[in-house]
Each structure stands twice: as C-alpha cells, then as structure tokens.
Amino acid sequence: MKSAIIINPELPVGYLANAVACIASGIFLNGIDLVGPEIKGKDVDYIPITKIPILLLKPGTKSLLELCKQARSLGLKYMAFTKEAQSTTDYDMYEKSVSGLPLESVTLLGLGVVGPDNIVNSLVGSLPMLR
C-alpha cells in the first residue's frame, strides 16, 4: 500500500499545513490496517501513526481536478480537500457549501490517495515532491 497527498504549493505555509493535516486525517479514517496501535512509553503514550509513508507532492503540470478524476477512475481511495472546507470552522456550514455540488464547481486545494503501490504510482509517479 502507498499513500500520497498532492497539494497546491502556492498556499501560505499555515494553510498548506492545515490542508495536509485535514487530508491525512480523512484519508486514513477507518483505515485500521493502515494505522498502527498506540505505543506505551515510560512516561507518555504515543498516538498511532500510519504504517505506510505519506508522499507529499505538487501537482506539477496536471490540475488537481484532473488528478482527482484520475484517482476516482483508477479506483483509489481518495479525498478531495477544498477551499470551501478551509474557509470555515463550522462543519455544518462546510457541508452545506459543498453538498450536491459537482467537483468542477468547488476549488480544490489538495488531494489524498491510498491504494496499491502500482496504482498509486501510475497516478503520482511523475509528480514533483513538495520541498
């Protein structure tokens, strides 16, 4: 299994970090086999993290919309993160702002994908790393 987050590199660093955190929390939701167990330390409990690496990539010459549609057509588990999501702190308002809308009518800021290595590679293999 492989995972990747493709993010708009033009976002200010705080918004970029927030988008990556939101995508990671969503893409691994219910991914019991992808997340390890809690680890007991001497004086701290370490929260579970992913068992697989998360690549952080830029869309390069492709649009996030194109990549999202391609992820869907490849059968990958994917999560589109939108400006509408980042523009509110109220989940109900976010839900109302995107519910029933086609992908083309929202502003994509990032995309998370998880799936078999070869399928994820076919989507992201040529994309540049976020540095």
Please, could you describe this protein's structure?
This protein has 131 residues and is of the alpha+beta class. It has one domain (2-124): Bit1 (3-Layer(aba) Sandwich). The protein is built from five helices and six strands, in the order βαβββαβααβα. It has helices at residues 13-27, 64-73, 83-86, 91-98, 117-124, and strands at residues 2-7, 39-40, 45-46, 54-57, 77-82, 108-115. The strands form two sheets. The chain has a four-stranded mixed beta sheet, with helices on both faces. A two-stranded antiparallel sheet has the order 2-3. Strand 2 and strand 3 (45-46) form a beta hairpin. The longest helix is centred in the first third of the chain and has 15 residues, at 13-27. The protein is globular and about 50 Å long. It starts with a strand and ends in a 7-residue tail after the last helix.
Topology:
Layout: E1 2-7, H1 13-27, E2 39-40, E3 45-46, E4 54-57, H2 64-73, E5 77-82, H3 83-86, H4 91-98, E6 108-115, H5 117-124
Parallel strand pairs: 1-4
Antiparallel strand pairs: 1-6, 2-3, 5-6
The chain-level structural class is alpha+beta
Question: How many structural domains does the protein architecture include?
Answer: 1
Main CATH class = Alpha Beta
Query: Going by CATH, what is the homologous superfamily?
Result: Bit1
Please report which band the strand proportion falls in: under 5%, 5-15%, 15-25%, 25-35%, 35-45% or over 45%.
Answer: 15-25%
Share of residues in helices = 25-40%
